[in-house]
Specification:
mainly alpha
Length: 430
């Protein structure tokens, strides 16, 4: 087998991406090309067993549960109560609704864990109100997309679960490690929004700060929703349930809250909830299947080891290597959907960083924050597409408005990359 032949599936994969073929089908087609035409020593039946065995992993059961949580949340009144609470906290500031947008994504992250779900929900609920209050539509779209990058970094983000499986690290550790980076991303975005809002004279969403009694009232209504992520973390911390069981418990809690407390969830909503869950789970699982089989091909040809050796030959300095990897991830994130990029690149890059003593949990946070930034970045950022399509914003206008917000997120990424102690503070504490 010629040395060049083993890289044909990778070239084919990127060609299919550029032709706008769905990610899952691009991965599967590239993998099957290898097993059918390049390496026919492995029976196709064995390859097909890989397709099936890939999704037989017990921890992957957490994914449909948490996707279902995000769907139930929208029907159960959780989103509306969190929005009211966020507005009472910060709506009186200059650019109040833009701040509420960021704060709502942060509060929602612990429940939905999906960037695209958060971007779509806020585009429909909060963005129309922002434009009604005088915010420019492209700026509204930029804030909505940038803030949605926070959601998957806070547990129970699906990417946190997937990385833990790929890197063979504790899901619990990944969950705990997500909080500090997420709050830093929120703070950086809110500081940037404050400067822009002051310059453009965007008005607050409320003339006067909410009274203590009013805030307490909104907080009381939001408590059931806010307790869900903390209940999940504490339950896993004390060994009451596994991450997979936590997903089922989160579904149960959201359902009880929607029925018994907010009383907005109805029996007839479950047809739509199940449909959305099946659609979301199917798309994620197909990507995982395709990426795992593609990873099987790369493992057979020892491509991850070759990439690790190449990176280490470029530099044996940990700081320089992390900078190179960040640049690579940002470029890849511009063209490939975040989850798929992580599944493809983690097995390639992990051996190199472990060789230089980088903590795998720290590296996981770097990857996840990086690919979330990629989701807001042109030309193919998934959250960018979601927001621009719903709000009908031209991409060129979106790019102009999102630039300062991207700069804020990239600054946070650099701090997280080179300050391991900050990322690992909570995991080490617990």
């Amino acid at each position: 087998m010629a040395a060049v032949d083993i890289y044909i599936p990778i070239i084919l994969l990127f060609v299919l991406f550029l032709l706008n073929i769905p990610i899952a089908f691009s991965l599967i087609a590239s993998s099957m090309f290898y097993f059918l035409f390049i390496n026919d020593s492995i029976p196709v039946s064995l390859v097909m067993q890989r397709f099936i065995s890939t999704v037989s992993s017990f921890p992957l059961l957490a994914i449909p549960f948490f996707i279902m949580v995000g769907s139930i949340m929208n029907y159960a009144g959780i989103s509306r109560n969190l929005l009211a609470f966020a507005d009472s906290l910060i709506g009186h500031k200059v650019g109040g609704l833009a701040h509420v947008n960021v704060l709502l994504s942060t509060l929602m992250g612990g429940i939905s864990g999906s960037a695209n779900a958060d971007a779509a929900m806020q585009s429909k609920i909060l963005a129309p109100e922002m434009t009604k209050r005088g915010y420019d539509l492209p700026f509204t779209a930029a804030v909505t997309a940038a803030s949605s990058s926070i959601s998957p970094v806070i547990p129970p983000g699906i990417n946190l679960i997937i990385f833990a499986l790929l890197a063979n690290v504790s899901v619990h550790s990944m969950f705990i490690a997500g909080y500090v980076p997420a709050f830093m991303m929120a703070a950086a975005l809110m500081i940037t929004i404050a400067f822009i809002s002051k310059k453009r004279k965007y008005k607050p969403s409320r003339e006067h700060p909410a009274s203590g009694k009013e805030r307490l009232g909104y907080f009381g209504k939001a408590i059931p929703a806010l307790l869900i992520p903390f209940g999940i973390i504490l339950g896993m911390r004390f060994g009451l349930f596994t991450p997979t069981e936590a997903g089922a418990i989160a579904v149960l809690l959201c359902t009880i809250i929607g029925f018994a407390i907010y009383r907005e969830l109805k029996i007839h909503h479950f047809a739509a909830i199940l449909r959305e869950t099946i659609q979301g789970t199917s798309s994620v699982m197909f990507i995982i299947i395709g990426a795992m089989v593609f990873g099987y091909y790369m493992t057979l040809e020892q491509i991850p080891q070759d990439v690790a050796s190449m990176l280490i030959s470029l530099t044996d300095d940990k700081a320089v290597l992390l900078l190179i990897i960040n640049i690579l991830l940002i470029v890849v994130g511009m063209f490939i959907e975040g989850g798929a990029a992580m599944i493809i690149l983690t097995p390639l890059l992990l051996p190199a960083v472990l060789n230089l003593g980088v903590n795998p949990v720290h590296f996981g946070i770097i990857i996840i924050v990086n690919i979330m930034i990629g989701g807001v970045t042109p030309p193919f950022g998934s959250m960018m597409f979601t927001v621009c399509s719903i709000l009908r914003v031209r991409m060129v206008d979106f790019v102009r408005e999102v630039a300062p917000l991207l700069a804020a997120l990239l600054t946070v990424l650099m701090i997280l990359t080179y300050w391991e102690g900050l990322v690992m503070f909570l995991p080490n504490l617990f």
